[in-house]
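Practice problem 4.
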């Protein structure tokens, strides 16, 4: 009986532990969600143990989702009203990954500088016009060990992020993923170095995209310093490489180690189905 009770309690506690920090990726089609639905969604998120909402971006290319009085800003005000802390994403260039492929050396450094400038401008807009109580900022330009496998690129990135971080009034969050181009030990040291800047660094576990075998992913995770958090992917990709991204909801894998955890993405969690449009 005691063992059964322990299992039941563990089962009840797992969703809250997993979903304390949730990523939300705004899409233009979310504009169809009504204010009442947003209220229901944020209330359910808090009931599931949600404490912090990490919004992936607040501007994507030419779209700012209605700006300071638009649907995204209004929905996030409601999220605050339901008790959720906000880490608000900055600017994302839709061509970011293509540009990483095309550029090298000084060209890549100049591109990053320009994109950080766009995010700094977005930061000013958010701070001055959106009037949201924010607990942190998120830089949507994800890092990976393919495009930053060369130490010179990582060094240039370090310097730029250091300068960028000094201009913000709240902690900066950034995320990375692995495709097997750096040894786990080197990758862990790199992300730990970025965390030493005072950044909140997240490593995506890759369970949803499945680019690496599970055993390899585990090796990368085990090599991470404790101060690097882990993003648990709550989806399984069903689209082939090169196709429009499609995924199905899946339960995130929970860790037992020392890392802070977050879940990607709210859209795939059970209480968001029927509210947020699926891809």
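Answer key:
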């Amino acid at each position: 009986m005691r063992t059964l009770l322990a299992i039941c309690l563990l089962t009840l506690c797992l969703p809250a532990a997993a979903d304390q920090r949730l990523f939300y990726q705004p899409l233009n089609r979310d504009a169809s969600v009504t204010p009442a639905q947003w209220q229901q969604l944020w209330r359910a998120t808090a009931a599931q143990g949600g404490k912090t909402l990490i919004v992936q971006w607040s501007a994507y290319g030419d779209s700012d989702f209605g700006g300071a009085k638009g649907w995204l800003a209004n929905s996030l005000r409601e999220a605050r009203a339901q008790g959720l802390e906000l880490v608000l994403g900055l600017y994302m260039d839709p061509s970011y990954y293509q540009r990483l492929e095309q550029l090298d050396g000084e060209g890549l450094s100049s591109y990053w500088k320009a994109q950080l400038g766009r995010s700094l401008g977005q930061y000013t807009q958010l701070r001055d016009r959106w009037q949201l109580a924010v607990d942190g900022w998120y830089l949507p330009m994800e890092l990976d060990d393919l495009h930053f496998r060369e130490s010179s690129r990582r060094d240039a990135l370090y310097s730029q992020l250091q300068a960028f971080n000094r201009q913000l009034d709240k902690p900066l969050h950034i995320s990375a993923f692995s495709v097997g181009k750096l040894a786990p030990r080197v990758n862990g040291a790199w992300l730990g170095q970025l965390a030493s800047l005072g950044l909140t660094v997240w490593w995506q576990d890759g369970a949803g995209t499945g680019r690496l075998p599970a055993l390899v992913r585990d090796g990368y995770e085990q090599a991470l310093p404790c101060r690097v958090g882990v993003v648990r992917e709550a989806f399984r990709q069903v689209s082939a490489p090169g196709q429009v991204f499609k995924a199905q909801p899946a339960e995130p894998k929970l860790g037992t180690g020392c890392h802070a955890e977050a879940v990607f993405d709210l859209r795939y969690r059970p209480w968001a189905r029927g509210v947020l449009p699926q891809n």
